[in-house]
Write a structure and sequence with these properties.
The chain is mostly helical. The protein has one domain: Leucine-rich Repeat Variant (Alpha Horseshoe), CATH 1.25.10. Helices cover about 60% and strands about 0% of the residues. It has 14 helices and 2 strands; from the N terminus they run H-H-H-H-H-H-H-E-E-H-H-H-H-H-H-H. A two-stranded antiparallel sheet has the order 1-2. Helix 4 runs parallel beside helix 6. The relative contact order is 0.07. About 0% of the residues have low confidence.
């Protein structure tokens, strides 16, 4: 007989709130694993309490709690439409606060950004944010992606961080939203460009260029930007490599070239294979940018 998750989590309602701990007070790792096994299916009152407390797990150093419980649980409820507008708004604002965390392990902000991509998705599917709220989210997403300087991806002990990829996922959901206008899309694309060729001497190895390519491709699909705008956007990428005198003689320059080439090839492959005319139209601009790379 399956143990009732309600009985296991009964302690949530007899303990004092502890919003900054994981496992949340009233639970333990075992009860949270059971919650996951039962696909996060709980009564409304239990879920209402958990949605206030599970965000703490997004900062936990244990990847099974952070990714397998915190992210998967919140994502499951958001995708199922189980959270009402007030809960979504409260969760969003809590995640905004988490973006400002500055800890050595660096796991909280990337996972806050990843869950924010799911929050943004709910607004894309069925709008609930006001235009001002949506604009604020656009600005926060762009600021977060542009600001990432911790390029750690996967670690066998610590699991994932993946700040650039998670930021790109958040940007993607906003780019897909038809209520996000051209000026807002351009704000998001500037943030993407900042990480396509990061200033630091970091060579991506965890699929970041492909993730950065996705919001660009879907922005093109929406047809908001004309050919001249796209030509300018792609044309501005090769100069970000830096001093041409350093070509092939500087590790920072080489890392930037690696990242730029990986990104351009990701976009080129999709544009070449796509049946969407707006995405296919990117191909000559990408080819031109590739030719401009030493």
């Amino acid at each position: 007989m399956r143990i009732s998750i309600v009985l296991v989590l009964a302690g949530l309602f007899v303990s004092s709130p502890a919003y900054a701990s994981c496992p949340p007070e009233g639970t333990d790792a075992g009860s949270l694993r059971l919650l996951r096994e039962q696909r996060f299916a709980v009564p409304d009152d239990v879920r209402a309490t958990l949605v206030e407390r599970l965000p703490a797990c997004l900062s936990d150093p244990d990847p099974t709690l952070r990714d397998g419980i915190g992210y998967e649980g919140l994502s499951a409820w958001l995708r199922a439409g189980s959270l009402d507008e007030t809960q979504r708004r409260t969760l969003r604002d809590r995640l905004y606060e988490m973006l400002e965390q500055d800890t050595a392990d660096g796991v909280g902000p990337p996972f806050a950004a990843l869950v924010l991509s799911e929050v943004a998705r709910t607004d894309r599917i069925a709008p609930w944010m006001s235009p001002d709220e949506r604009d604020a989210m656009v600005r926060r997403a762009a600021a977060y992606l542009s600001s990432v300087r911790d390029y750690r991806g996967f670690d066998a002990k610590d699991g994932w961080r993946h700040g650039v990829a998670h930021g790109a996922d958040w940007v993607l959901q906003l780019v897909l939203n038809e209520r996000v206008d051209r000026a807002q899309v351009e704000t998001l694309l500037r943030a993407v460009a900042a990480q396509v060729v990061p200033e630091s001497a970091h060579a991506y190895v965890f699929g970041e260029p492909g993730r950065l390519a996705r919001p660009v491709l879907y922005a093109a699909k929406r047809g908001l930007l004309e050919e001249a705008a796209w030509t300018g956007w792609f044309g501005a990428l090769p100069p970000r490599l830096g001093d041409a005198k350093q070509a092939y003689a500087d590790t920072t320059w080489l890392a930037r070239r690696h990242d730029l080439m990986a990104f351009l090839m990701s976009v080129h492959l999709e544009a070449d294979q796509s049946e969407d005319p707006n995405i296919r139209a990117l191909k000559p601009m990408v080819v031109q940018a590739l030719k401009a790379v030493p």
